[in-house]
Specification:
Blueprint: H1 19-26, E1 31-32, H2 34-42, E2 51-55, H3 61-66, E3 72-76, H4 80-90, E4 96-99, E5 113-118, H5 124-132, E6 137-145, H6 146-152, H7 161-166, E7 170-178, E8 183-184, E9 191-198, H8 209-220, H9 227-231, H10 237-247, H11 260-270
Parallel strand pairs: 2-3, 2-5, 3-4, 5-6
Antiparallel strand pairs: 1-8, 6-9, 7-9
Helix pairs in contact: 10-11
Length: about 270
């Protein structure tokens, strides 16, 4: 198995902590119980013909369950101790490849692929960024902190900059909740299943991507206290008023309460030649 060494799991540090405990803290490890893994997978719709990349595979509880439903699984686990246990657990699955390496350091496959996994909460944003930058990604359905998943999908009634600026090319969806007692060790918060899917047909043409991102950045700059006032710093106020009216957005609306679809409509109106 690539990258798997021979360090003993019971080695201890000068503080008396085992290497396993040090790794658990450093790598933000909270593994799913079998029931939690089944709950998670029940919320996914995995194409059996798609290559699946699993982030933070741990001991393989998800890997073992998902393998029969996939053409091929690449299971990433950076911790040597757990990577060895993972390989032992899934060796009867001929379609599983265990990779004992850092997922974030890998290049995306040339073929289309989907991402799944119980992502360590400390690297959630990095994993999401990696997925968003991958041209051959079809979707990423990952476990994050519950609050993170809600924030990115507008479940609080507000929308984040990251969601809005990527909405033309990716959809964001909250698939459900994983109670904290389904993890070991027990984390402080529940998990949420976040699905990011790359659109087959972008909502904005690729050659207008920069223009759209510039408008979103201007809107989120917070000048004037409303989206209308922020956009009016660069666009004629009458055109901004018309764009907001066509999108059904009140002129007094604060930027966070403008939905991603409304952003798309506003851009299309302002971008007319």
């Amino acid at each position: 198995m690539p990258g798997v060494g021979r360090k003993r799991s019971h080695d201890t540090s000068p503080t008396g902590r085992s290497q396993r405990d040090i790794n658990r803290r450093a790598l933000s490890q909270n593994f799913l119980r079998a029931a939690g893994a089944r709950l998670y997978l029940s919320k996914l719709d995995i194409d059996p013909e798609t290559l699946v990349l699993e982030v933070g595979a741990g001991d393989g509880v998800i890997t073992d369950l998902v393998a029969p439903s996939c053409r091929e699984v690449w299971a990433y686990e950076i911790d040597v101790y757990h990577a060895r246990k993972l390989e032992d657990r899934v060796r009867h699955h001929r379609n599983v490849r265990v990779i004992a390496d850092n997922f974030l350091a890998e290049r995306p496959p040339a073929q289309e692929f989907a991402v799944i996994g119980n992502v360590p909460f400390s690297i959630t944003s990095n994993v999401v960024d990696w997925c968003l930058a991958s041209r051959t990604l079809t979707s990423a359905s990952i476990i994050t902190q519950w609050e993170y998943a809600r924030k990115r999908t507008g479940d609080f009634g507000r929308w984040s900059l990251r969601t809005v600026e990527t909405w033309a090319w990716f959809s964001w969806e909250l698939l459900g909740r994983i109670p904290r007692d389904e993890f070991r060790p027990l984390p402080r918060v529940d998990g949420g299943v976040l699905r990011i899917a790359q659109r087959r047909r972008p909502l904005i043409a690729s050659h207008r991507r920069t223009a759209y991102l510039d408008m979103v950045a201007l809107g989120f700059a917070g000048v004037g206290g409303s989206l209308y006032k922020s956009l009016s710093q660069r666009h004629p106020s009458n055109r901004v008023a018309t764009a907001l009216f066509e999108a059904g957005v009140d002129r007094a609306t604060v930027v966070a309460y403008v939905t991603p679809d409304e952003w798309i409509m506003i851009f299309r109106s302002l971008d007319r030649r």
